[in-house]
Amino acid sequence: MPGTPDDRPDPDFAWTAAEIRRVGGEVTEWLARYLSELPEKPVFTPMSPNRAAAMLRAPLPENGQTADEILRLFATEVAPHPFGNGHPRFYAWVNSPPVPIGVFAQLCAAAMNPSVAGGNHAAVWIERQVLEWFKSLIGFTMGSMGLLVSGSSAAAITALAAARHRATERRGWDVRSTGVQLPARLLVYMSPEAHGCHQKAVELLGLGSAQIRTVPVDDALRMRPTALDSMLAEDIAMGALPVAVVASAGTVNTGAIDPLAEVADVCERHGVWLHVDGAYGAPAVITREYREQLAPIARADSVAIDAHKWMYVPVDAGVVLVRDVSAMRDTFSLVPAYLRVEEDAKGVQGPPWFSEYGSEQTRPFRALKIWMALRYYGLSGYRRMIEHDMALARHLAERVRASDDLELFEPTGLSIVCFRAAPTSMRGNTKSLDALNTRLTSALQLGGVAFLSSTVLRGELWLRACIVNPLATTADIDAMLAALHSYL
Fold first, then answer.
1. CATH number given to 114-364
2. Structure confidence by residue, pLDDT tens digits, 161-212
3. How does DSSP classify residue 115?
4. pTM for this structure?
5. Is the link from the previous residue into 59 a cis peptide, with omega within 30 of 0?
6. Could you state, in order of their start, the residue ranges of all structural domains in the chain?
7. What is the DSSP string of 188-220?
8. Cα→Cα distances 56→64, 66, 87, 179, 355, Å
9. Who is most buried in 296, 376, 429, 487, counting CB within 10 A?
10. Helix axes 430-447 and 474-487, enclosed angle (nearest 10)
C-alpha cells in the first residue's frame, strides 16, 4: 500500500559496502585518468550549441537510472567539456587546478555531510583550527574571528557589513533596525583596480554604488595614500561617514599590491575600517620576495583570502577574517546577548556558533579540504609551489621583452603578466592593436593549445596570463607563445 512504511531500508538508498566500493572504484579510476591525461588534451572544448540545447530540453527523469548509466552519461556529456583550469596551459583569470588531496577531502566531507552552523562536532573544530592557521599566516591575534565562505564576494559582504555596523554604531545609529536611511552619506573608498565584488557588496548592503569614492592610482596602478588621506579629510569635514577603505593585496588585473602600510596609517588617522582584499595575493606573504610587502596585512580590520585561488584547494574555499570579534558578532547574531553561549566544550552546543558571525545558517564542511591540503603540503610546500608560479611569470615576461612583436605591460606583479601583440607597423594605433589582440584572445581560447584572458589597462586591451598552476612548466609557457605567434 502506498505510504506504508517498510521495516527494511530502501535498497536504492542503502547501498551495500560492496556496491560503494565498486562504484567508488570506477569514480577513482576516472579521476586518475582525468587528472593524469589533462596535459595531452585541449585546454578548452566548448559545449556545442546542439548539445547544450539538448541538455535544456531533456525532461526530469520519472524513473531512476543505475549508477553505471549515470557515470557513462557523465563521461560522455560532462567530462569532455571542463572549464579548463586543471590544464597546465590555462592562464585565464585566477582559477587553479585542484590538489588531489583536496579532491579526496571533498569526498570525505560530502560523506559526513554535516551542517557547520555550530555545535560540538569535529567539523566545527576543524574550521576553527583552519581559521587559527590563517590568522597566524597574516599576523592576526587570537582574539579575532573569521568564517569560511564561498569566496571573496561573500567575504566582502561579510566584512563590509561589519564595517558598516561599527561605523554607524559609533554615531549612535542602529542600522540593523532602522536600515541605512541615515542623516549622513555612508562612503566606501577603493581604487579603480579593486575587484567588482566590492561594488556589488556596497550595493547589496544598501549603500549604493554612488557612495563609492574612487581613489586615484599611481603609474603602477596602486592606490595613492595621499589622495586617500585628502579625500577622507574632505568628506569628514563635509559631515559624511566613511565606512571602509578597500585595499588590494594583489589585484586580479595586474597583481598590483597597494601600499598597505601607508594606507593603514591613513585609516588609523581617520578612524576608518580597512578591508584588505587578499583573495589572490595574500598567500604570497609566505614567500621570500613578498613577505615584507604583504606583512602590513596584519594591520587590517578585515581580510579576504581565497584558498581556491593560490592555494589550489577545490572550489569553494573562501576565508574572511575580522579583527574585532564583537563587531562581527553584533552585525549578524540574532541570539539575545544574555543567551549567548561562550563555550560548551563538554556539551552539545560547543563554542559560539558560526551562524552568529555571518549570513549563512546551513554551512557546508568547507574546512576539511583546506585542513588536509595544509597538512599535506605544509608552509614549505606551499612556498615552493607559489614561488614556482612566480618564476614562470618571470620567464614569460622575459620572453615577451625579448620579442620584437610583443609588448609587456610593466610593472608585473605576483604571478600575473599582461602583454599584447604589437607589430611595429601598428605601434601607436590603439584601435588596431585592440582589434588584433581581441582576435588573438579568441583564437587562443578556441584553439585548444592554451587559454588566456584579456583585460583593459589605461584604456587599452591587453592579453593577461595569471599563472597559478604548479604543474605548468617553461615548456608550457613557450608552447603558449608559439601558438600566439601562429595566429599573428
1. 3.40.640.10
2. 999 999 999 999 999 999 998 999 999 999 999 999 999 999 999 999 999 9
3. -
4. 0.94
5. no
6. 1-40+46-81, 114-364, 379-487
7. EEE-TTS-HHHHHHHHHTTS-GGGEEEPPB-TT
8. 19, 22, 28, 41, 36
9. 296
10. 120
